[in-house]
Amino acid sequence: MPAPLMQLDGLTKSYPGVRANDDISFNIGEGQIHALLGENGAGKSTLVKMIYGLVRPDSGRMTLHGEPFAPSQPTEARLNGIAMVFQHFSLFDALDVAENVALGMENPPPLRDLARRIRTVSEAYGLPLDPSRLVGELSAGERQRVEIVRCLLQDPRLLIMDEPTSVLTPQEVEILFRTLRKLASEGTAILYISHKLEEIRTLCDEATILRGGRKVATCDPREKSARELAELMVGQILTPPERPARAMGDVVLEVENLSLKSSNPFGTSLKDISFQLRAGEVLGIAGVAGNGQDELLLMLSGELRAPRDQVRLRGKPVGHLGPNGRRGLGVVAAPEERLGHAAAPDMTLTENALLSAARRKRLERGGFIDWGKAEAFARDIITRFDVRTPGPHVLARALSGGNLQKFVIGREIELDPDVIIVNQPTWGVDASAAATIRQALLDLAGKGAAVLVISQDLDELLEVADSFAALNEGRLSRVRPAKGLSVEEIGLMMGGSGDMHVAHEAAE
Amino acid sequence: MIRLERRKEPSKIWRIANPFLAVVLTMIAGGIMFAALGKDPVAAIRLIFFDPLFSEQFGSYSRPQLLIKTAPLILIAVGLAIGFKANIWNIGAEGQYIMGALFGAGVALAFYPIEGWYIFPLMILAGALGGFMWAMIPAILKTRFNTNEILVSLLLVYVAERILAAMALGLMRNPDQPGFPGSRDLRRYDSAHNAELIANTGLHWGVVAALIAVIFAYVMMTRHMLGFHVQLAGQAPRAARFGGVSPARLVIICLGLAGALAGLAGMFEVSGPGGQVRIEFATGYGFTAIIVAFLGRLNPIGIVLAGFLLGLTYIGGELSQMMLQLPGASIQVFQGMLLFFLLALDFQTNYRIRLTQGARA
Q: Does A466 score more than 80 pLDDT?
């Protein structure tokens, strides 16, 4: 057992109405990779914010190297050797890597020295990074490297990582794990927040599991099965999603040779996309973030208009229709960004229910809103999809990520669509909420809807998809049946050489 | 040490309390300003806020003035507030007000001296159209070429003022009195006169229009999809696009609506209290209405209250010029302070100010 670097003793923090952390105690050893595991709302973020000086505990103590430690702001935590990589990056697209790193440092050295140090550190830890590249041009994995390198430059004693692998390809995850193991072997402790259980079992030495603000257990994750960990985390028995048996129907949605320029200067334009989607089919589209996923969703939802004839619904051209036109025909979408795109943060759940359902659910008549009906609809979504919230009057931004996602996906499913397109349906969502969402999508397909799931989580795609394709730099690979695909083949498809690989096989 | 903490939800109490607090702070700061000018601050504040309504000496004159000054403020502010909610910043209501007046007066002068019931309704339509068309310039430039509507609408105010002067001295000048600038007095042309509906109350058609506009705006913002889309576009533009809102359409609607209402205000003014097209016809209602909109929290009901308060400062300002020889600009300073304090106080609705002990070593 290594000497404890940090001891948490009886940490408690209450917000009006909730006790976010209740008497939490555990130790983090030097050089230890310690997992913090829990569902959304279990209190992981609050706990980490206390360590990082963003929030002050109501009671309880922390010690660092045996000394009392009570940071009043992140600067103080950083000066004491604590660094954090957030789930959502705080980087500026229009600045280069070195400039972004400098912005996050207490006392940045001159840019030229900094660039040299970035190169040294990134090479030493196997995180190749060119300091002079614009962040806007980097993939999500590379952006994360910027954040990690920024932390490493400060020689942290404790590195906190919040859901780091949700944006990475399997290969990138491998690289990240190697880096983290190297760091740990040099004595840096890592607090690793995740709910991907297999990851935790391969990477971590110890795991602390939180549920409802309390510590449930501290254990060695390698001695538990993923199932046992999940059940500790959720507090109930989990059942894997069921795939209702179903027959594929006719082609519902068809996209043909579509090229479309991105509306965002740092976006990825779609290039020559073709695919067909049948009733009852779940098509999974993989790809590393930033390879055209957003644009594909916008094009299918109608937010980006396409040439009229290149997007067809049951043979009828719909490319020129906007979001409401397509909803009217039964095509609905749930974008990746929940707050700000799929939902308006400062509006209530009732208002957000109205956002996409106004016409299809007849929540308005002649433009006049039936608020009673809208509220009843919001309440329906909340009950049916088990959204944990006091009621439909709550602002969207007050919901945890998983709960809001259940609400957003639930809203679209309740529209009774013929085609549903979802992007990253379970990003940052806890295990039980993710299972609910995947099951709901499968049930919808079972009822004969065509489902298109864009995701960077391969396990998720393999769990739900019947057929499989990958996006690479705005190009879509050929669609292949998901059954029997190996992770290696998928990796090649994601790298843009999937078809070549097939051609190669055929030549043999 | 002072620390700012973002609130989880904007504070409802401060949202309502801030306008009142801003008025109190403005009275205090204004009092200091008057004292610095060598006037009795208590008397000045009294003259501005209380005497117009309650003084025996001026009350009978100034009470009807209150509705006359307030109606255009409310009419304009209601339209502006809808745009502001959608993050569409029409700063040029003054110009739209002038163009509405010119269009309305133009119709009247064209018919002169024919009498007919249809003339006044036609003037109303023309007034709304004048303001609408003037607002379409920034709207179309924004949707076509992505220009900034703040700059374009503001600069068009000065263009409108030049057109007003040209009309008063040229095309619309009263041919019977060629020596004087200014048009015929519409108050002496029965078919075009926006007369008081009840004598000595100040209640003219513009007041009725303001009332209708308030009700219309209230219903639209709380019950209609258009109001929902306006708020959505202002708060979360990407969510609005997801919801099927076309940003260009919204720009046209919001600027057009505000322009038409400002044009109406101008038309009711020129055909009633103002009486004629004169160089000095525009007295800043279009700008003061911006303060009214913010002080009323962009809410139609709040705008009614704020409209009366700012209307009062107009009358009180005139009184204080007369009685205390205060400079005319001091009332504009006063109105400016009101907006300044309000915006400063509004910081508290989203942030909490925390006093913390100095950082420990």
A: yes
- B300 and B78 in contact (C-beta within 8 Å)? yes
Q: A349-357 and B225-235 are packed helices; what angle lies between their axes, rounded to 10 degrees?
A: 110
Token readout for B304 is 């009614």
Nearest-angstrom CA–CA distance, B336 and B341: 9
Listed residues A208, A234, A260: the one ending a domain: A234
In angstroms, the separation between the Cα of residue B223 and the nearest Cα of chain A is 5
Confidence of residue A442 (pLDDT cuts 50, 70, 90): very high
| A219 and A291, same domain (yes or no) | no
In the structure, how many helices (H) and strands (E) does chain B have?
A: 14, 2
Answer whether B8 sits within 8 Å of A76, measured CB to CB: no
DSSP calls for B198-231? BTTTTB-HHHHHHHHHHHHHHHHHHHBHHHHHHH
Instruction: Please give the residue of chain A at the shortest CA–CA distance from B350.
Output: A346
Tell whether A331 and A401 lie within a shared domain.
Answer: yes
Cβ neighbours of B236 in A, within 8 Å: 340-341, 343-347
Residue A503 has pLDDT above 50, yes or no: no
Strand partners, A276: A254
**Of the partner residues A76, A323, A371, the one whose CB lies closest to the CB of residue B242:** A323
Q: What's the average model confidence in pLDDT over A217-245?
A: 76
Average pLDDT over residues A29-49: 86
CB contact under 8 A, B226 and A367: yes
CB contact under 8 A, A356 and B243: yes
Q: Do A309 and A357 belong together in one domain? A: yes
Residue B316 has pLDDT above 90, yes or no: no
- Asked if residue A225 and residue A256 are part of one domain, the reply reads no
- Per-residue pLDDT, A501: 39
- Distance, CA of A470 to CA of A494 (rounded, Å): 5
Cα separation, A370 vs B191, whole angstroms: 43
Q: Which pLDDT band holds residue B78 (cuts at 50, 70, 90)?
A: very high
pLDDT in tens, A348-361: 999 999 999 999 99
- HSE-CB at A243 with a 13 A cutoff on CA atoms is 11
Beta strand A189-194 with A450-454 is unpaired
- Last residue of a domain, which of A188, A205, A234? A234
Same domain as A411, residue A284? yes
Place of tokens 């004169």: B278
Q: Is residue A157 part of a domain?
A: yes
Task: Looking at the structure, tell me whether residues A216 and A256 fall in a common domain.
Answer: no
Grade residue A143 by pLDDT with cuts at 50, 70 and 90.
Answer: confident
Q: Same domain for A158 and A296?
A: no
What integer pLDDT is reported at residue A239 of this predicted model? 61
Q: How far, in Å, CA of B62 to CA of B162, rounded?
A: 31
- A335 and A187 share a domain? no
Which of B8, B218, B231, B242 has the most A C-beta neighbours within 10 Å, making it the best mutation to test the interface with A? B242
**Residue B179: pLDDT band with limits 50, 70, 90:** confident
Task: Tell me, yes or no, whether A195 lies in a domain.
Answer: yes
Report pLDDT digits (tens) over B234-288: 999 999 999 999 999 999 999 999 999 999 999 999 999 999 999 999 989 999 9
The answer to whether residue A246 sits within a structural domain is: no
Is A341 within 8 Å of B223 when comparing Cβ atoms? no
Supply the mean pLDDT for chain A. Answer: 86
By a Cβ cutoff of 8 Å, what residues of chain A touch chain B?
70, 72-73, 76, 301-303, 322-325, 327, 333, 335, 337, 340-347, 351, 354-356, 358, 364, 367-369, 371, 395, 398
Per the structure, the complete domain to which residue A477 belongs is given by: 251-507
- Assigned domain for A450 exists: yes
Q: Give the CATH number of the domain where residue A19 resides.
A: 3.40.50.300
**Do B242 and A335 lie within an 8 Å CB cutoff?**
yes
How many domains does chain A contain in total?
2
DSSP state letter for B298: T
Q: Are B239 and A351 within 8 A, CB to CB? A: no
Model-level ipTM above the cut of 0.90? no
The domains of chain B, with CATH numbers, are 38-326 (1.10.3470)
Residue A230 confidence (pLDDT) above 80: no
